Amino acid sequence: ISPGTNFEYLNEPTENNIVSLLIDENAGIYSVGYAAIDVSTGKTICNEIHSTRDDKTYALDEAFNLLQTYSTSEVILTLDSKEIDKEWLIHYLELESLHYSVNTKRFKISFQNELFTRIFSINSFLSAIEFLDLERHPYTTESLAVLIDFIIEHDESIIEKMNKPQFLGNNRYMYIGNNAMEQLSVISRDPADITLLDLIDKTSTAFGKRLLKERLLNPICDKELLEKRYDLTELLLPNINRFETHLKQIYDLERITRRIKLRKLHPVELTYIAMSLEAILKLLDDAQQNGLDIEENLYDETSEMLKVLHDTFELDICARFRIEQINDNLFKDGIYPAIDTIVKTQEKEVDKMESVAQHVESLFEKDKLFTGTTKYATVAYLESEGYYLNLTKNRFTLIEKSLKDSFVTIDNQHHFFKDFQYKYLKNAVKVQAPLFEEITRNYETSQVKLVSLVKQRYIESLDLLENRFSLLLDKLIVFIANIDVAISNAKCSKTMNLSRPVIEEGSFYEAIGLRHPIIESNDERGIYVPNDIFLGNNNASTHNHITLNASDGEDVLGVLLYGINSSGKSSLMKSIGLSVVLAQAGFFVPAVELRFGLYDKLFTRIVSQDNLYKGLSTFAVEMMELKNIFNRANERSLVLGDEISQGTETESALAIVSSAILKLISLKSTFIFATHLHQLGSIPQLQKLQNLIFLHLGIKYDESNDSLIYNRVLQLGMGDSLYGLEFAKSLHMDKEFLTMAQTIRENLNHGGSDVKKLQKQKRSKYNKDLYLSKCALCEEQVEDVHHIVEQQEADRDGHIDHFHKNHKYNLIPLCKNHHNLVHEGKINISGFVMTNEGLKLHYEIKES
Predict the structure, then answer these.
(1) pLDDT digit string (tens) for 221-259?
(2) What one-character-per-residue DSSP string does 773-818 give?
(3) Which residues contact 67 (CB under 8 A, 6 or more apart)?
(4) Would you call 701 helix, strand, or coil by DSSP?
């Protein structure tokens, strides 16, 4: 078994794609045929990508994106040109982190047609390639043929009855450039990272989980379809818990359906189907009551399938077996008369043994040795010894004489117990006899026939289930997965305080109260400070934005965003990208309001590090990604850049960033760059631009507390270019500083006192992460917990604006005295603000 052909032992709910890449190169220009199959579901996807003279590695970059977007367990690489540097290509695509092999087989079109006809069950006057709509994609068809042939070599049985391939190459999807999904932390190859996918996946079914991931990683440009996704979420919002209860009882029907088609379904999985169908019927009832559009007869067909399962199978018996373990009759009486005959034959043989046991029992009753219903002689069976009787040694001793003087009549023949064999064990006596051996032979002969016939009829019954109900199962899978993803979205809407995006015509982006969902999820960073921002056509704005004030009424195509490290400029920039991904995937967004025109393309230039796989330095990676953006961006593109050209010296950086800005302005792309380069404001070519504005996230130095305060709110202009000196001023980097740090560490480690005491402190009933150690304003014992923004300001879901009323940093532990002073208005508590020393509580004591 290879990783991609693992069918029996796949427990993870995520997809398990095995991928074929056929790569050609001509004068440094690459073409790629991509094909992927998940054998556990039968889903096949493919694509064909061609580079251009101006963008020679476009196809390779797209292939890399596909490998990241669709979970890939194994890659088969075929090279169509001897000129390709195999080792360089493997490094470029980062295949070393995957299980990969290099294929040298090539397949003619005649073989491809024959192969596809069989695998995809094609019966048409068209050729198989034409039937699959792949006649214009020769790299894809051969790549797909290579993939199918590889799977057949490993396990031919798992490649039958595949779904028709889904071709990805159309304009329905938003183009995602420069590995933006990973740069924005939508996904990550490091399982320890918190990703957007982790945060918004509240699905209950395995196939719902796969659909949610597929949607999130493939944002679309179809307004009508996106509105349908938003509508379904809103429709289900009032009944999240009810639907979620049903969804949690539904097994992975997508993989189960695939196993039915391949005749690999285990009998125990029939019980999974039955339990799932029962939950689905309840879900369909609720869906109908909530006004969902349900296909006609879907409920009746589901009821019919459930009835067929109950009428055909003994589901309690099925629950005991995998397919290779079957050793009992799985069917109801009357379904297969031949099986019923064998079962009756076996029952007669068992009845003979029970007759012998009853005779032994009668001796106890006759001699009045015991009373009650306890069985003293039991029928037992061992594969190595067959049938026998078992008694305890004490009880056997009581009836030994009378037993050996008696006989039993079976099939009109007398069998004398004096001729039986008695094996004395430590605490029991095992009774054996020629009669028992004959019964065993008859039973085991019947058993061989039974198992063979049951297995044969079981496989036939799977064939009947597929022919009768596979279309129903496919419809249910689509319907339930959509419900599951919508319920997940609705749940996030409530718990994360998300809102429905508004899609309008035009090229613009307007967000009110925009937040970064991943950063916001970390309570230890304090209450997130949201921002308003507008980009694009100023006629589309419905609010008075700082960006519009900065642009003097011109359209805002570009923003240069300044701020000290940790001020939040990268977070704000990424939050824009994340909101667009969420909105165009059909999910609600972390903002009070989001209005925008659909984007065709999203590019990021965020992560700056040497790429050892591709053999590029930090600066080379930046330039390569910038080049790709310029070649691929258009007027409906959003470009996000963080510290562009930080891999080179200042003069070159200024020249490169300025040129990049001018290039994107000429393309009419929308962009926002986070930067430290204050000299950009003095570049003559940039000073002439009416569509470029300068904003910053300001800080101020609090002399009384000797700390920097980050307000995290957008402000006009570039801010103070010397803010680094303010930061240094607050650090006191000298011997005194180091001595004090050492003293503090020693105090913290003194007997582990503070940490250990913290572990023993009582937690707040409002938030388990808040320990009630001492009053926030003095050293006295905590008696109360105060809500900074009072609870009465919260909505019915407990939210105050964008945060929950019980957020850790909306709560402060107070002694009774200070709590009273707060409510008397003698102490005014503003809340927590971020400083270079971490979060600080700001409050004012009013003089009486």
Answers:
(1) 999 999 999 999 999 999 999 999 999 999 999 999 999
(2) -S-SSSSSPP-EEEESS-GGGS-TTSEETTEETT-GGGEEEE-HHH
(3) 19, 75, 93, 94, 98
(4) strand
Q: Tell me, what's the pLDDT at 506? A: 85
| pLDDT, tens only, 569-628 | 889 999 999 999 999 999 999 999 999 999 999 999 886 544 434 445 677 777 888 888
CA pair distance 225, 212, nearest whole angstrom: 15
The answer to whether the beta carbons of residues 562 and 695 sit under 8 Å apart is: yes
What are the angstrom distances between the C-alpha of 261 and each of 308, 531, 714?
18, 53, 58
Interatomic CA distance for residues 508 and 598, integer angstroms: 8
Q: Which amino acid is it at 742?
A: Q
For the purposes of burial, counting CB atoms within 10 Å of the CB of 672, is it exposed (0-12), middle (13-18) or buried (19 or more)? buried
Q: State the sign of the Cα–Cα–Cα–Cα dihedral 232, 233, 234, 235.
A: positive
Strand order in the sheet with 378-382: 378-382, 386-392, 428-432, 421-424
Distance CA 181, CA 187 (A): 6
In this structure, the number of other CB atoms found within 10 A of the CB of residue 577 comes to: 24
Q: Which of 248-252, 274-278, 562-566 has the lowest mean pLDDT?
A: 562-566
Per this entry, what is the length of the chain?
848
User: How far lies 396's CA from each of 313, 367, 376, 431, in Å?
Assistant: 42, 13, 9, 10
The span from the CA of 44 to the CA of 167, in Å, is 9
Q: Give the residue among 569, 836, 832, 831 at the shortest CA–CA distance from 700.
A: 836
Order of strands across the sheet that contains 99-103: 99-103, 72-79, 17-26, 29-38, 43-50, 166-167
Q: What is the structure's pLDDT at 722? A: 47
Tokens, residue 162 = 């595949």
